[in-house]
Amino acid sequence: FGGVIFHEACGHGLEAAAIAKKASVFTDKIGEKIASDKVTAIDDGTISNSWGSINVDDEGIPAQKNILIENGVLKSYMCDRYYGKLLGMESTGSGRRQNYTYAPVSRMTNTCLAEGSDDEDEIVRSVDNGLYVESIGGGFGGMQFSLEVKEGFWIKNGQIDRDHQVKNIMLTGNGIDVIKRIDRVGKKMKYEKGGFCGASSGLIPTTTPQPMVRISHMAIG
């Protein structure tokens, strides 16, 4: 869940194409505090046998592990050759495209929030009344997002009520607000099979592995 939120709400805003066009709230913010101390965000194309991994990108640059946000501080962008040059930055092995119909642009690979130091059981026990989300379905992404809860349950008095599954609920919010409200991050990374991300250079395989996170508050409806 945390990885999906980051991919949809923040990841695209950290791609050099958006930064160079000044179409992102993260433009000119490298070195600034943009998220909670709990947030370290990574795009890593080198994870062995992962759906979003690559050996080299579509411009011949070897895949890299790119730390985008470290302890809440913006460290880097995902760069292809062209937009990286406009920003005065080297390529990060992020130039990707579906096929030769498209020109490569900066895109994600395996994008996640790094594991934290919080115990997963304790995270659940810390919630008196809240929503536990196991998987996200449809909706629309971007800095302003609205995503369907595909599988979720209420947490009551620190326990997940699995007898009552939540249906037809949307998570809505602003990406930069959400990453400021992450106040717990679990120790265990949960991996997934992956899917496809669509943008100006077509569909590419990506994954959003994720630890458990607690978001202090956000809108549901």
Describe this structure in words.
The protein is mainly beta and 221 residues long. The chain contains five helices and 15 strands. The mean pLDDT is 92.
Helix content: 10-25%
Low-pLDDT stretches = none
Count, helices:
5
Largest sheet: 5 strands, antiparallel
Mind telling me the C-alpha Rg? 17 Å
Q: Could you report the average pLDDT, rounded to the nearest whole number?
A: 92
Structural class: mainly beta
Instruction: Please report the total strand number as a whole number.
Output: 15
* Spatial separation of the terminal alpha carbons: 17 Å
Question: H/E series, N to C?
Answer: HHEEEHEEEHEEEEHEEEEE
As an assembly, this protein is single chain
What is the fold's blueprint, element by element?
Blueprint: H1 2-9, H2 16-20, E1 41-44, E2 65-70, E3 73-74, H3 81-87, E4 95-96, E5 105-106, E6 111-113, H4 120-125, E7 129-140, E8 144-156, E9 159-166, E10 170-174, H5 175-180, E11 182-190, E12 195-199, E13 202-206, E14 210-215, E15 219-220
Antiparallel strand pairs: 1-2, 1-6, 2-3, 4-5, 7-8, 8-9, 8-10, 10-15, 11-14, 12-13
Short description:
This protein has helices spanning 2-9, 16-20, 81-87, 120-125, 175-180; strands at residues 41-44, 65-70, 73-74, 95-96, 105-106, 111-113, 129-140, 144-156, 159-166, 170-174, 182-190, 195-199, 202-206, 210-215, 219-220. With 221 residues, it is mainly β.
